């Protein structure tokens, strides 16, 4: 075997460094354990809906003066966005927002929570179609717990039509 001669110049990167592994090789995030809904007390989820887009951070700035279009749902941390879509659709949308009944309607979900300074932040976490379709994948299979929902956060649902 021939000896390799090192020339002065650019340093080689240390061993063990380099680009991150491809996405398939990364370990998947731990999936939330299913909740025994017969034995576990549900949490109260305050859901705010709005047609056309999400509420703004300022809409939640004053405690007690949140937007009026609220629905309260008792659910669990393993509830999926699809399950919440169906609940919101049944409780709120049929009477208040007929736009959501359209086949092309999209429900955009956002968590509303206080940041480190105490100001409320609206952060989109997923989208579902009002009518599920295998040819149009959405975020319906993601659970609240998988999306880092914290008890006490609000859920803001924007009803979007194309």
UniProtKB/TrEMBL annotation:
<dbReference type="InterPro" id="IPR010516">
    <property type="entry name" value="SAP18"/>
</dbReference>
<dbReference type="InterPro" id="IPR042534">
    <property type="entry name" value="SAP18_sf"/>
</dbReference>
<protein>
    <recommendedName>
        <fullName>Histone deacetylase complex subunit SAP18</fullName>
    </recommendedName>
</protein>
<feature type="compositionally biased region" description="Pro residues">
    <location>
        <begin position="16"/>
        <end position="25"/>
    </location>
</feature>
<comment type="similarity">
    <text>Belongs to the SAP18 family.</text>
</comment>
<feature type="region of interest" description="Disordered">
    <location>
        <begin position="1"/>
        <end position="37"/>
    </location>
</feature>
<dbReference type="Pfam" id="PF06487">
    <property type="entry name" value="SAP18"/>
</dbReference>
């Amino acid at each position: 075997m021939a000896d390799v001669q090192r020339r002065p110049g650019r340093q080689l990167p240390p061993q063990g460094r380099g680009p991150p592994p491809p996405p398939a090789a990364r370990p998947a995030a731990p999936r939330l354990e299913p909740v025994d809904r017969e034995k576990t007390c549900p949490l109260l989820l305050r859901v705010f809906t709005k047609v056309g887009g999400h509420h703004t951070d300022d809409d939640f700035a004053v405690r007690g003066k949140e937007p009026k279009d609220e629905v309260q749902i008792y659910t669990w941390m393993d509830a999926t966005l699809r399950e919440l879509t169906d609940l919101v659709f049944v409780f709120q949308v049929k009477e208040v927002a007929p736009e959501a009944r359209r086949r092309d309607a999209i429900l955009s979900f956002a968590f509303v929570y206080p940041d480190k300074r105490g100001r409320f932040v609206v952060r989109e976490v997923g989208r579902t179609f009002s009518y599920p379709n295998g040819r149009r994948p959405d975020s319906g299979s993601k659970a609240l717990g998988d999306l880092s929902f914290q008890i006490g956060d609000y859920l803001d649902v924007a009803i979007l039509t194309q």
